[in-house]
Predict the structure.
Amino acid sequence: MAFVLPVVAFFAVFNVFPVLYGLYLSLTRASLLTPPRWTGLDNFLALHSDPLFRLALGNTLVFVLGSTVPVWFASLGAALLFHQTFPGRDILKTLFFLPVLPPLVVVAVVWKVLLNPIGVMTWLVGWIWGQGEISWLYNTTLAPMVMIVVHDWAAIPFYMMIWLAGLATLSSEISEAAHIDGAGPARTFWHVELPQLRGTVVLVCALSSIGAFQTFTLQYVLSNDQGGPVNSTLVLGLLIFKQGFQFFRMGYAAALSVVLFAMILAVTLIQLKLSRRAH
Amino acid sequence: MVFFVVAVVLAVVFAFPLWFMVSSAFKAENEIMEVPIHWLPHDFQGWEQFRNAASVSPLWRYLFNSALVSSIQVAVTVFFGALAGFGFAKYRFRFHRLLFFLVISTMMIPFQILVVPLFMEIHAFGWENSYVGLIVPGMMNAFGVFMMRQYAADLPDELLEAGRVDGAGEFHMFIRIILPLLAPAMTSLGILVFIWSWGAFLWPLVVVQDRSLQVLAVGLTDYSQSYSRPPMWGAAMAASTVATLPIACLFAFFQRYFIKGLTAAAVKG
């Protein structure tokens, strides 16, 4: 009992209490200077008619979609590729894995340079489209897409590693049996191997979507003017930060957090349920 | 052969931005944006861009702060994670299941949800803008407890019984017998926690205002997001290289543990 006490006390003080306190804050008007004042559901009603919230909600959902489904398939594809044997596989796999190493801030800063309107990416794309200048981060259509592509660049190698760990646990006997029974590689993978990877599938889906809902750093660092241009990359994580730490509307920021939490919880529960049914 | 060609293309596409980062750290400012790009600096600058980075911002101070914060968080998380993981795996006590559930359920809490109330709490403690406020909230990690419990549960009970027969105290036994056996798992966990802690951005951003206390991850934005002077891309690339180097070294020297730590959730979960 004494062994677990420090850890339990820590989580009570720095995790459980803040969650409950956050729920309370979301029902108040609070700033750092004035003590919280009870306002009931006012924050949530205000949220309902806040155009910035709707915008951030939409932007977040677009980002979640773009940084989950493509990542699942691309990382699985990469894992299947690097699961094969061919000359130079290990060194190429290591090179492919490199984007996992830099912290996300570094990823954002480096891409900010690459995405300069007259920079390297414009030059590369210029071969195809023949454009001299592309305003990647100053265009309301391009900027949200750029956030997704940069995120996926860093995420695909990471999830490939998880798929590879799953693929390593596969029983080769079962796959061979399927092969002897006349199943081609695609059918063997879909009907025989993928069902054995159920745990990995759930993990990849859950981790990637939970992470995507919380996105903050990319939009804060990479986008022009923290969420711009014209709020086209303003996501919920960024809106919570702005409301709480730039406008000091702590109660409202807490209410936003509660909504984000509810969304993440719902997605997690749906995925758990789907994985149970697959049993 | 097809596999090889596809793999080469993928490797080039995914490794290119990092090559660009490192090579640009040694280029002159106007050479960075030049196209077609120079794969290697034509006008090699030596450490000039690193010196530039350190002259407009306290780069080395940032680096020291990051090292301090990360090393304390890694040490505490790994030690107490192993202690609690062992406790949950090998002992039965009142509220055993409830407490374990409580700890594990905090894994489900996204940090975005905590940041506002946690900041209010730290503010009330008077820990705002201090090392304590920076370090303490990240000093424990539910996933660490969970991972350690999984590994500790696999250890045979006979070990403990043999220790008790010899009259060793429970804590003594933990230090002498259990810790060495958990060392490989602790190494993996330590690397994982280091990566999280080193890259942490949102919490340092909100809790620290003094630049002398700030960590490298937040300090990096000095070079790209200043309103008072033009962005310094060479300095940004140099500082980014510095920020990536510790993790790259861990990867180079502890590759096996590194991959194991990252995929621990996949295998053990």
